[in-house]
Write a sequence for this structure.
């Protein structure tokens, strides 16, 4: 699954265009490397997303194309939250 689509489906970011812009702007890295929106994710990848208030780091647990809002958190596990910094 593409990085931008995963960020939208998992509801880390609200819209795919926002996710795409974040990737293009260097605010998203996978396994420590900055990635473009089309980067293909694998289960177990560690994604880091930079926000104004800090950084959120999480591990990909599943790559489902469609999930409900209540099941979106099952796609990832948070390693480091922006509030933990």
């Amino acid at each position: 699954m593409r990085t931008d689509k995963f960020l939208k489906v998992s509801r880390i970011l609200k819209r795919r265009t926002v996710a795409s812009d974040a990737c293009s702007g260097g605010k998203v890295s996978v396994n420590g490397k900055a990635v473009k929106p089309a980067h293909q994710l694998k289960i177990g990848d560690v994604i880091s997303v930079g926000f104004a208030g800090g950084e959120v780091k999480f591990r990909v647990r599943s790559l489902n194309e469609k999930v409900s809002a209540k099941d979106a958190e099952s796609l990832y596990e948070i390693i480091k939250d922006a509030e933990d910094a």
Notes: Residues 16-24 form the longest helix (9 residues). The helical segments are 3-9, 16-24. The chain has a mean pLDDT of 92. Strands lie at 28-30, 33-34, 46-51, 54-60, 76-80.
